[in-house]
# Entry
Amino acid sequence: MTATPTMDATTAARFRLWQYRTLIATMLGYAAFYFVRKNLSVAMPVIEADKAIGVTKVGLGLFLTLHGLLYGVSRFVNGMWADRANARWFMVAGLMLSVAANVFFGFGSEVLWLGVAWMINGWVQGMGFPPCCRLMTHWFPPGQLATKMSIWNTSHSIGAWATLGFCGFVAERYGWRWCFFGPAVLCTIVGFILFVMLRDTPSSVGLPEIKVEGDTGTHGEDKSSADYKAFVRRHVFGNPALWWISLANFFVYILRFAVLDWGPTLLKEWKGFTLQHASWVVIGFEVAGIVGMLLAGWLTDRVFGGRGPRTCVFCMIGAGLSLFAFWKLGQSAAAEIVFLGLAGFFIYGPQALIGIAAANLATKRAAATAAGFTGLFGYASTLVSGVGLGWMVKHHGWDAAFAGLLAMGACGLVCFLLAWRAPAHGYGEAK
# Structure
């Protein structure tokens, strides 16, 4: 399969420069989206302790659930829009709207005010991932996508641990409101940087588009045409492999959000860590996840021939064993940190590879739509990881919650096994 256009040396060097520029800018931009999304996780114990607000764990869990559901629907809807829009404008607009929602949240002192602000944030956050997916599939060929997009996917973890570190510091010193005002200021600066650095496609800067054998789509095609709509129906909504990995995403995100959203609270209440130390432990979970997703991407391209679901089978086994060890064998703070780090190492492989597999199966013609579809399932998981987990912990304790998490992990493993025979990409069938 040919996946790169023929270029002279000067054009090839310029193309590579724009590839690196796009990769770095989208990593910075998506990390910034996390800065104004995952800040609530650190602020939750402090907000709960603020008696003037009067919100409980179940209420905070409901915030997480509604935010996640809106984000999932938004990512799906915005995925379809992003395939038709200029990714540069789309991404910057989403980040600035999220900044506004965070400022609105920071000024709130009533549960209803906070809830409305966080629901608005849930919707506009869905404007972050789809344009990144569009950009990556237009700037990198499918044979490199698992490796390059795994590198890009570290932005999730970089954004999460930066949020945890920054907000853990300011929450204990300046109050929970600066968990929202501070990130809003920083992300406004990032928005200007993105506007300068990003461009939509290679042709928008005078470079040739990537050509892939079997891809019948053309640059600038009419996305409202009957041919394009038939393509999306067949290669996204009618693709059994994409349905299986989307369902697997539901279970992967339950495990991921259980640690990322509830980790500071869990470690503070159940394991006796201070809030700041608990935030650093969850940062360790994210840092280990960076290593895991990079290795998973490399293995997918080099060992499994681009078939991400096969890599995910082994990752899910490792994630389940690590969480079981954290639950049952963590007899010291050091052991708990190690086992939670191992869980992050294994969980973030599937978290990255699902989006990559979806993009490759749907080809660059509908990559953002497919990524939005998997995201719809992923963020529906907040029904379990948000209010569901909050209710479970309140009424049955953390032990019962962890038993449920292991069952969710087993379900995810089964879904990946059912997608084992999925092809590496959909270009050969994209007719």
